[in-house]
Write a structure and sequence with these properties.
Blueprint: E1 2-5, E2 12-19, E3 22-29, E4 32-36, E5 39-43, E6 48-52, H1 66-95
Antiparallel strand pairs: 1-4, 2-3, 3-6, 4-5
Length: about 100
């Protein structure tokens, strides 16, 4: 899905999440162009367009597979401690005076 200005004019819009798979795009200024699955829609300023989004990771019943959630949690278990260690080393190196023996 892509959302972009329909022409070279200044354009703005607002996206509101209604549900897990439902969005509402409202044109605030200018004309927006929405391309979703080969279907092209135009949203004028002051009008709205409801989008039903299907996740690429979703299974046959629309649920996200359990393995995807586990991979995300496992990723956080590695990234968070790594960022913490790097931050501590950087702060320690910044605070240590080069003049001390």
């Amino acid at each position: 899905m892509t959302i972009r200005p329909a022409n070279a004019q200044a354009t703005s819009g607002q996206i509101a999440m209604i549900g897990a798979k439902e969005l509402v795009l409202t044109g605030i200024r200018g004309t927006l162009e929405v391309n979703m699955g080969g279907e092209l829609k135009t949203v004028e300023a002051g009008s709205s367009y409801r989008l039903e989004v299907e996740s690429e990771e979703s299974g046959p019943d629309g649920q996200v597979p359990v393995g995807a959630a586990r991979k995300h949690r496992r990723y956080l278990w590695y990234v968070a401690p790594t960022v913490a260690v790097v931050a501590v080393v950087v702060i320690w190196r910044a605070l240590v005076s080069p003049c001390l023996p």
